[in-house]
Amino acid sequence: AGAAMVARALWALLAALRAGWCLLPQSGYLHPDEFFQAPEVMAGDILNLQVYYPWEFLSSSPCRTVVFPLMTSGVMYWLIKSLQQLDICSSCINSYTLLVSPRLLFTIFSFILDYSVYRLAPFWEADPWKALVLLAGSYVTLVFYTRTFTNTLEGLLFALLMVLVSSRKSSGSSAEPTSSSLIGVVTTAGFFNRPTFLAFALMPLLYWASLIVDSQKNIKTLINHFLRFILCACFTAFVFVTADTFYFTSVSLDNLYSTNKSNLIDAIVQLHDKMVVTPFNFLSYNLNPHNLALHGSHPRVTHFTVNGVMLFGILHILAISAGFKMLKKYIHHLMLVRWCYRGPPGLLVHPEGSPTLLLFYFVPLAFLSLFSHQEPRFLIPLILPLVLFSASPNRAVKWKLLIVLFNLLGALLFGCLHQGGLIPCLFHLEQLIHSPVSSSHLRHYTLLFAHTYMPPRSLLNIKKTDVHVEVIDMAGAGEEALCQTVEQRASNFTCSDCHIFIIIPGTVRDTITKCGVPFKNETLIFPHLSMEDPPQIPVLSSGNWRSQLGLYILELNRDH
Fold it and tell me: Which GO terms describe its molecular function (predicted)?
């Protein structure tokens, strides 16, 4: 009882940390997709801000559904826009609210994971509070599940699916009547969010199907379950396709509400001809090895050997070890039954854990490993079966200190350091651009970003009608291209109120110095760790370490 009380208190503390750190906010920048797969697009559509639309959201190549961005970032941006229009909050739209409001919604949604663990733990014979502490204390939950990734939604939908298929034990008489319908809705929604969801849904769906077949003696009831699943899946798909078609095509909504019957028929025909099914476009693009190579190719074992360890640490290693042991015992049992008893093998449930739960972890991992492009965030949905497996009796107890240190390091690295200067830099620039001095008389700003992740322009809070701010993203441009661009901008320094800022990590600060262009102001934002341009260990040990772990905002000196 005492241990349970301590676990409850620890979970509550970690849950508060999750919410508080979101509001602080977290400065780490994990990957451009956390901005460019929802918030950036919705900021342009709903708030009419200057943004960069990624190719997946262009009408010429629609590969992402707009439904989830609208339901998450879209709803939050509509809310702060309404508050400002009603004069409830005079300056609701700023860089802080643009960053934090979608993240806050995702943080609230992340507690679906906690609910799922609490519901599922007794079913899979795991300690509920031990599993909840493992979940809440993981830096994957603290950092990744509070960010606006489609992978985050994929993990939440996977958790809901596991709850739905685990609602009754195998000894139960039947599945709940509503489960079939909800399972159909969740599976289809997950597929439209990310088609890779099918890799995660495969084992839960097979498990659910086996429970229904085992528990239903009446063939009519059995067919009824699968019909409900198919009908609800089809209806959900229709909703997504309709919403995406309206968004990505030029068919006007006014045509559909036109009283003219011929116009209405024409609009429906146009919709049919221009029907957008984003998952098929996504699969068509990603099944092409050449396209995947553009985003980076990795060895097929990267998920197993690198990404799993990077996300889950010792828990991933223990799961692999347990998996090999169970596979060895199953093969031994299979041979024993075949050669001695001549009976059916059957899959045993050993005292050290459920093989079925391990399959929920390793089957998606194996399917995702078939693709050459492998990023760690693709695996974050697997945290649920992993913590349930790890929270079984007498498992991972002796590794407590290692688990704590690993997650502290992960939270520091990805939540604070990784590209950690870029978001504060955009906050600083937004305040500069919208300062009273800038508002009183028009100033022109050129913001040149080099060797950083793609800057989300929405955080600068610039209306599409404003033309006094220009953003140039040089990405990882070499010294020659960078100097050429800087010199070109400096030579065109004609207006009296033109300001050119160059944003560059301290590790490549010398590159700009070689360009021979003078600067009058330097602002150092700390910390900022660029893994693409990492600091050198000898330099870190010197007195220049702060510069190496910082991001510079350099203003060109027009007087020279």
Answer: alpha-1,2-mannosyltransferase activity
